[in-house]
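sorry for the late reply, my laptop died twice this morning and i had to redo everyting from scratch. anyway the thing you sent over, i finally got around to it. pasting the sequence first so we're on the same page, its 408 residues, then the predicted structure underneath. double check i copied it right bc i was rushing
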Amino acid sequence: MKFRAVIITAPNLCSESDDIMNKKISLGLAISLIAIASAVTFILTSFFSLQSFNEKVVDVNEKSQKYSSLQRLDSYVRDNYYGEIDEGVLTDGILKGYVSGLDDDYSRFLTEDEYINEQNDDEGHIVGLGLTLAQDESGYIRIDEIMEGSPVAEQHCKIGDIITAIDGVDVKTTGFDESVQAMRGAEGSDIKLTIRRDGIDSDYTFTRCSIEVVTVTGEMLNGFIGYVKITGFKKNTPEQFIETLERLTSNGAKGLIFDVRNNSGGLVTVLEECVDPLLPEGVIATAEYKDGHSETIIYSDASELDLPMAVLVNEETASAGELFAAALRDFKEAPLIGVQTYGKGVMQNTTEFNNGAVVLTVAQYKTAVSECYDGVGLAPDVQVENEQPEMDAQFNKAVETINIALDK
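ok and here's the structure:
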């Protein structure tokens, strides 16, 4: 009988036990990690929520203190002020003071009348007599300029005439600022001015009217250079600009000089219509807002005027005037001739508020090529000072620059 050895292999109980233990440890560890992560998330969330809450509480407390101070001041004034309080004027003053407290050169609150005047000015129309006025050394008002279409011009008043009284009230008694304010009024209303010339006072009655402001003029120089003067950017500026540009180019202009000296700006929103015919296709300028997002504010299509150009600038060239100059330099290689510009590269929005309006700085802007020039200005490519009042050296240099470009 043969015996056969039979080897029975028992299950590896030790190995299976280790696997089960490892699984248990892994599951426990995972649960622990989840718990720890949840705790950390809770702590961080609580921390930041508490921090946010504390910031809000501080902000609320600060606001409460401001309003409480204003309330105490109001109570004190009403209890002790000897004169009468005009509630409307007081409210306007409070709102003006708040915006003034931002310490921003360009933000302001406008009363209802100021807002109406601002809207008329933006439209490119003024209601009044069309006079530029200055305080004379005598204390009265001197006429420095008379706009074309002014009702004053129709009665042959002259630059240099002195206004001594408005509606019978002496200017020196009222004061310069108040007298100028008194000259404003509704279209169609009458005003009586006492005007002194050669020591003789004469009374005239004028009717206030709406006068279109001309911001663009142009002429041909030497038969082949177009000269375009832009004094500001208003809603009617693009129409005047295109008409002037077409007239000069159709008359044979081979080069263009744009003069934005003493142009303090105006509406950035109208710039696109002015620079579009001059520049290549693409984004020309953008604005960056408080939350970090950017918007295109000037875009040019494929149509482009292929002529040599130059831009005249000075220390009073600002805002939209600077952006116009920067765009032509960056995209047309038009040299800037003159002196360093003012340096206003921030944009304001006007929003109706409380029967008036808030003009608030909301963004910085720049061309798509160069940096924002706010607070810095644009450095001219050709530095030229007008040292002799009787000779415009900047203008002469611009003409010379275009002539050289045309000779190439």
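Residues 1-25 have pLDDT under 50 and may be disordered.
thats about all i looked at so far, will dig more tmrw
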